[in-house]
Amino acid sequence: MADRTLPATPSVAAAYAGPPTPAHEIPEVSTLQTELAATGSSPIETGYGRASSGKVWVAVHTEMPGVTAAMWDWWFGWHSAESARYKLWHPDAHLYAGLAVDNTAEPIPDRAKYIGNASYVDEYIGPKLQQLTIAFQNPLAHGFEVPDDHTTILARVGSAVAPLGVGWLAHQVRPIAGGCEM
């Protein structure tokens, strides 16, 4: 494990050093099922900005050599049970993690460990510490196509201290030669 978060890749650094993506190019949440189709690419794979609705949007294309979608399902079923595990993802920004139901040791499929469960996290988003609830949803129930060698991690994100929905989180992981991409 690295003591600090590694720098962004050159393509990510360039996208975020540049201007925001124009609002008319940003997909609305209601189109994510199409935007994150099992095949093809989104028009914008890495960028940031505000959609026409005013919602903040961030996208980062990441290639992961030697990684599979099944590994992502294992990770999401395992990492939120302990803060030290959550910090592995982002040592600088992730401070705390806990689960509504800790079933990480149960003999159930990895997806069943997080879908329908909630993770409570304290993490920095930009310079501000946020206390969040991440309620993992079944992507199939929301109209996503998820082939067997893919995964889509879908969650409703809200405040952990007030009954307020903040947004959606979607990680699409699909195979490419030598690994996967998100």
UniProtKB/TrEMBL annotation:
Superkingdom of source: Bacteria
Assigned keywords, A-Z: Hydrolase, Metal-binding, Zinc
Database matches in InterPro entries: DAPG_hydrolase
Region (Disordered), start-end ranges: 1-22
Signal peptide coordinates: none
Cofactor annotation: Zn(2+)
Pfam family, one: DAPG_hydrolase
GO terms assigned for molecular function: hydrolase activity; metal ion binding
Domain DAPG hydrolase PhiG, chain residue ranges per copy: 35-182
Family statement: Belongs to the DAPG/phloretin hydrolase family.
The protein's name: DAPG hydrolase PhiG domain-containing protein
Originating organism: Rhodococcus oxybenzonivorans
